[in-house]
Amino acid sequence: MVRPNILLLHCHDLGRFLGCYGHRTVHTPHLDALAADGVLFEQAFCTAPQCSPARASLFTGRYPHSAGVMGLTHRNFAWDLFPDERHLAQQLHENGYTTSLLGVQHESLASRTPEQMAARLGFDRAVPVVEGTGAPDRAEAVAAAACAELDRLVEVNQPFYLQVGFVEPHRLPVNHRDEPGYTGFIGDHIDPDDSLGVDVPAYIADEGESTRTELAELQGAVRYLDEAVGQVLAGLAQRNLTENTLVIFTTDHGLALPRAKCTVYDPGLEVAWIMRGPTLGWTGGARRTELVSHIDLLPTLLEVVGAEPSARVHGQSLRPLLDEADSRTPDRDAVYGEMTYHDYYDPRRCVRTRTHKLIVNFTAAPGFMDSSQSWRPRTTPRAPVRSFHPPVELYDLRVDPQEEQNLADDPEHAPVRDVLLEELHQWMRETADPLLDGAVTSPLHRMAVGALMSAGT
Q1: pTM (2 decimals)?
Q2: Which CATH number fits domain 335-445: 2.60.40.10, 3.40.50.1010, 3.30.1120.10, 3.40.50.1390?
Q3: What is the DSSP string of 273-288?
Q4: CB count, 10 Å around CB of 430?
Q5: Nearest 5°: CA angle at 43, between 259 and 271?
Q6: How far apart are CA 416 and CA 311, in angstroms?
Q7: pLDDT in tens, 114-169
Q8: What's the rounded Cα separation, in Å, for the pair 95 and 91?
Q9: CATH architecture of the domain with range 5-323
């Protein structure tokens, strides 16, 4: 069989906020159509509720603390993949694929030049978003550049891997329509969208106009993203590439709303994940309910191209599940999530089964990190805000899907708590989690110590 081309589309901060995931006021016809023509994972989770660690897992098949990215890769956060970590692009390149990087890249040190970044991650080139297509970080410009790159790739006598990253629906700091102290979703180029109403997520308190104004902005940003995705998918069709291209769409983590992004509650870890591969038989609008993790993407794609993942990879191939008839169908009992650094040090680890979530907190930080990037947030969570983390949290997701009632100290739930504590501890040991040896310091800490040591020398 001819190996398929691979087009991986990913975005910021989306969670599962799409029409095909049941959010009926979110206008996403192109992604809904992709799901209707492909395979949708209903219970897909990332490994971390922030962009760089989540993407490190997505593109290496390994947990963030194992891959070296326990915080953000840009500015003075400066986290980076360990030198021996191998990106998906590198492994596909070694297996005969021509590889192109376009748009957002957050899995490796951002201070590198585009050429250095491409070389480090295994891309043949980092594609510039050229002038004339709009501001280079906007989805419409990224989509136009992706279509232009498809023109180049069809002339190459190799299967291709094209990785396209969109900023939206991340909150956008440059927006002259925002009031002082608020960072919204629409920038200066996106309109709010309440044409189908406004869907208030179950974990957010509906406090009237303020809440609905912000969520209309979010829906507008998601609609804008969907239009750009539709532009790229149309570009595939126009070049007769649809049939032999495996399309993957996903996001890094949950929505940038309170108690979602930057938390290990489900709204922070849940992700949209859609795949369509006509030549592989991955079509027809199938919906899979098994627990899957982003670490499973790399081994899945390597199996598709006939390669064997390293024993260091933590994920498992989903091809048996996608093929359905394969007797090797994987069946995950649990997924694991983590957070170490984002705006500040807030180390947490969790294990989630189909019925329960257990979280261990390693500092007495506030109940959740505010992901609104605003001094004056417009939305607030429905759950009571605890002043500080308890050491352990346990939730019965069957009766408490919003994770509001902590059962960790309830004697009746002690047996399940103890089992999950042991499972989490075992996972941390097996993956060499540095938290077991004490506090983790950041690259900025090392820079600060270096500045002190160099003074007067």
Answers
A1: 0.96
A2: 3.30.1120.10
A3: EEEEBGGGTB-S-EEE
A4: 11
A5: 50
A6: 31
A7: 999 999 999 999 998 865 555 678 999 999 999 999 999 999 989 999 999 999 99
A8: 6
A9: 3-Layer(aba) Sandwich (3.40)
